[in-house]
C-alpha cells in the first residue's frame, strides 16, 4: 500500500481543536464513534416491560430526539430512514415479515403510519439499509422458498417498490453509497496465501439498475497493517472507505482507505474508559459552535 500514515488523537484534544474552528471547517470531520455500552442504557433505547419496541428519531448533532407514533411490531421486522430530495421530506419505512409494511412522514404536523402496497412478500435482512438520491435500498429474502437474496429499491417520494437480484456473497457485505450509486463492500480476513493471512476488500458498484449490471473491484492489504475485529463502517462523501474496530480496547484504531488513490491511513482514538462494543457512523457532522 502507498501513503500509509499513523496518528494518535486523544478525544479531549479533538474536541478542543474543533471548538476553535468555524463550522464550515469542523464540518469536514466525517466519523462519529459511540461506545454502545453507555448508549443502550438510555431510556429511549430500552423496551417498555421488555416487549414494546419504541421507534425513536435522534439527531446526534443536537441531541434532539422524538418518538414516532406507536406501532405494533412483529419479530423479524425492521425500520429504515429515507429522504425525498424533491419534497425535502424524511420518511420512516417499517418492513414487516407478514407484508403489512407501514410508512410515516416526519414533520411538524400530526404524524401517522400509513400502509404501503408491496407487490412481493419479503423478509428484511438484519443489515442496515441506505438512501441514495431518494431511493432507499435494503437487502431481503423473498418468502417463496427460492432462498435468493434480493435488493429492495424503494422510491421514497412515490413509495413504489422495485427488486433486483443480489450478486453472490452479498449476505456478508456492507451496503454503501459510491459516487451516487449503490455499492457493496465485503471485508475478508480468512484468505491465507503461502501461510500468510492476507486481508481482502471486495467492492461491487451497481452501474445500471434496470439491466442489473455491476462493476467489481478487488484490493489486498499487508497483514501487518490491520488488527483483528475490524469491520466496514461505510464510505465517506470524499470516497474513503472507513473500517473500524468492533470493541473498545487499547489501542483503538479506525482506518481510511481510498480506492482511487490506493492509500491507507490509520488513526488511533484515545479516551475510551469502558470496554464494550463500538459502532461508527460515517459522515456525521458535529456542530460544536452551534452556529
TrEMBL record:
It comes from the Eukaryota. Residues 52-285 form the F-box associated beta-propeller type domain. NCBIfam families: F_box_assoc_1 (TIGR01640). This is F-box associated beta-propeller type 3 domain-containing protein. It comes from Eutrema salsugineum.
